[in-house]
Amino acid sequence: MRRTIAIATMIIAIIGTKSGAALESADRIAAAQCETAARKIEIAEAIPKGLLFAISLKESGRWDPVARRSVAWPWTVSSGGPGVHHATKEEALAAVSALRDEGRSNIDVGCFQINLRYHPHAFRTLEDAFDPATNAGYAGAFLRQLREDHGSWPKAVARYHTSENARGNQYRVAVYKLKSKVTNGKLVTTRSKSTIDWMERRDIQRRKFSAAKKARLANLRNLHHTKVKQAKRLRAAFEERRAKVIREWEEMMRKRRGAGRRSRS
User: Vertex 9, ends 8 and 15: CA angle to 5°?
Assistant: First the structure.
């Protein structure tokens, strides 16, 4: 069964749109949805112009050799490796279903590659996750929250990618280069594969695990303290009973010795 699923996944990946293939007219319409959604959310969330769109290019960008520019692709799916740019939304949905059938949950989807494991409540349905406007809306809200948490847009961009300073800075530099090119109307050249590994999501999960671990350790300490107190009570009760038994035994022996003396006399 697992082999069948794996083969199905490979087939889906093969029939998915090739990263370097020229885009047809219908494909360009689909690709434009990510940019349109990003531009609208930039205004709605007061995000610097071009910043969210640059992130979409970094997350799901694919090269269009005819137009000689990169476009964010709404039907991108990745799971622990390079993203696959599927030809249609239906193919992307089928790819996610196949990955889930394999037992995978670390899956990134859509224009902004939102992770379904670490953002389980981001979308009402899987179809919503592949809706460019909905995907962009969540990405924009998340970026805005990171801005509030860390104090600046550059730091928010770095945290969007990872909690590691070095990797986060590399990601920030790459995104701002894309933003500069987009803003200045230059040709945008970005990788055709989605390379973001979502360390930030893992970091959030680690913080949750850390909090849970601290709570468990506190419970264990309380339990140990309770057991120590109980052991002391049991020990005290044992010593008291032991002393009582000794007293009773000594009293019994005293009586026997007295009875023995009387019988001899």
Answer: 90
